[in-house]
Design a protein that fits this description.
Oligomer: single chain
Shape: globular
Distance between the termini: 57 Å
Number of strands: 0
Radius of gyration: 18 Å
Structural class: mainly alpha
Length: 288
C-alpha cells in the first residue's frame, strides 16, 4: 500500500485540494478576529497545541503502546482541527466564527508544530531512524498544508462566486478521501488490526473524550462563554485526520503510524455529536 502511486502521489494531491477548499472558506478577517477575541483564541490554541499533545503522550506511555502506534497518536494530537468542527459547532450553537478563526490560525501553526511534535515522538519512542521529518519532508508538509490554504484564500478574494460554488463539492470530496484512506489503512494492516485496536482502541477513545471535555471545561473554567466553550470543544476534539493520515502514509511511509488516525476518524464522529447533545441538554435543563 505504501509504495503505490495512489499513496505517494495521489494522497498529497488530494490533501492539497482539501486544504485549498479550506482556504476558499477563509478571509483575512478570520485572522483579524484574533485581535478582537484574544482570550478565546489563546485559550483554545494553548489547549490544542500544548495540553493536548501532553495528554496524548501520557496515554501512550501509561498504556505502553507500540512505538510506531505511539508516534501515530502523537501525530494525531499535533494535527490541526478539522473543518467539520464548524458544522458540529453550528449544530450545537457554538461560536462558529471562533471555529473558523481557530481553524485558520491552527492550520498555519501546524506547519511548524506538527513536525516538532512528530519528530519528538519519533526520537522519544525510538521509532525507525529513517522515519523522521527531515527538512525536505518538513517542506513537503508545508507544501500540502499551508500553501494550498493561501492559494484558496487568494482565489476567494479574486473570485468569490467561484469560491462559493466550489465549497460544497470540496467538503464532500474531503469526507470521501477521509473515508477511503482510513478504510484503506485499516485494510492494509488487517492481519495485525485486532492487536492494533487492542493497543490503541481504548487510548484513542480516551483521547477523543479528553479532547472534547478539555476544550469545553477548560474554556468554561477560564470564563469563556458557553458558545465559545462549545466551539473550543469541537475544534480541539475534531482533528483533521486526513492531514495525519497523509503524513503517516505518504511522508513517513508507515501504515502502522496511520492506524491511530484511522481509528480516531471513526471514534470522533461518534463521540462529538454525543458530547454536543450532552452539553446542550444540560444547558437546557439549567435554563429557567
Amino acid at each position: 500500500m505504501n509504495d503505490s502511486a495512489l499513496i505517494t502521489t495521489g494522497l498529497p494531491i488530494a490533501l492539497a485540494i482539501i486544504m485549498f477548499g479550506l482556504g476558499l472558506s477563509l478571509t483575512p478577517a478570520d485572522f483579524g478576529r484574533v485581535a478582537r477575541s484574544p482570550k478565546a483564541i489563546a485559550v483554545a490554541l494553548g489547549l490544542q497545541i500544548v495540553v493536548l499533545p501532553a495528554i496524548a503522550f501520557g496515554l501512550v506511555v501509561a498504556f505502553d503502546v507500540d512505538p510506531l502506534l505511539a508516534v501515530g497518536v502523537m501525530l494525531l494530537a499535533a494535527s490541526p482541527g478539522g473543518t467539520t468542527a464548524n458544522l458540529f459547532s453550528h449544530l450545537f450553537r457554538g461560536d462558529v466564527a471562533l471555529n473558523i478563526t481557530l481553524t485558520a490560525v491552527n492550520s498555519v501553526l501546524a506547519a511548524v508544530t506538527l513536525p516538532l511534535i512528530t519528530n519528538f515522538a519519533i526520537s522519544y519512542f525510538a521509532a525507525d531512524g529513517e522515519l523522521g521529518l527531515q527538512l525536505a519532508k518538513i517542506l513537503q508538509v508545508l507544501a500540502v498544508v499551508l500553501i494550498p490554504v493561501a492559494v484558496g484564500m487568494l482565489v476567494r478574494h479574486r473570485a468569490p462566486r467561484f469560491a462559493a460554488r466550489t465549497d460544497k463539492p470540496v467538503r464532500i470530496f474531503s469526507i470521501l478521501v477521509l473515508v477511503v484512506v482510513a478504510v484503506g489503512a485499516l485494510i492494509g494492516e488487517r492481519d495485525h488490526l485486532a492487536e492494533y485496536v487492542r493497543q490503541i482502541g481504548l487510548v484513542t477513545a480516551l483521547f477523543c473524550l479528553a479532547s472534547l471535555t478539555l476544550g469545553y471545561a477548560g474554556a468554561r473554567l477560564l470564563r469563556l462563554d458557553r458558545g465559545q466553550a462549545i466551539a473550543s470543544s469541537m475544534e480541539i476534539g475534531i482533528h483533521n485526520t486526513t492531514v495525519a493520515l497523509t503524513i503517516a502514509l505518504s511522508v513517513l511511509g508507515s501504515t502502522e503510524v496511520a492506524i491511530p488516525a484511522a481509528v480516531y476518524s471513526v471514534i470522533m464522529y461518534l463521540f462529538a455529536p454525543a458530547f454536543g447533545f450532552a452539553v446542550t441538554r444540560d444547558f437546557a435543563r439549567s435554563e429557567p
